[in-house]
From TrEMBL:
Keywords: Nucleotidyltransferase, Transferase
PROSITE patterns, sorted: GGDEF
Keyword Repeat on entry: no
Enzymatic class: transferase
Species name: Roseateles oligotrophus
A GO term, aspect molecular function: diguanylate cyclase activity
Every GGDEF domain range: 51-185
Protein name, as recorded: Diguanylate cyclase
Gene3D superfamilies assigned: 3.30.70.270
Amino acid sequence: MQNEATADITLFTERQRIELMGLPELISLPNLQGFAKLVGRELNQGRRFGTRPAVLLMDVAVHEPLGAPAAPSQHALALLDALGARLRSRVRGTDVVARIGEQRFGVVLQNVERANVYVIQERLEKVLGGAYELAPHPLYASLASGITKCECPRIGGSELTRAAEVALSHSLPAHARQASAPRMAVRHAG
């Protein structure tokens, strides 16, 4: 028999868990330029502490059970909200998560100099993709993502965001994602 506290916590949604854990809210941005400014701010903060972040961009496609793209609806938007809340709860509290437009998410992963960003990207894809039971029938989330690790101390937020976008545009099956780097030294992961 479960105690009451354990039984009650199972009823919480991902969003309520985020609030209980004290994590920052998901940031909503209208476009990629706004995200680039956010990345620039986080780069400056990282420089003060001697750390370098990575940037992950993730596009989400919502599908019906038989694979057909889902028409924009309240159920599809609910899936994207749930995916965003799940993403926020799966990264560290110091990482910044933003929803860019309707079907794209961006994450600034702080202090990842020694981390294997490929593994982080793969784990997030595994946890976030798949079926979501939010409607009378399940909807499915398919993910494409690109990640860039900051390797150059002089790179700006827009360059790092652009490099992540290039990595996203070159999304291939897992372990095969690479993108050409911009002028500055940027390592593309994914």
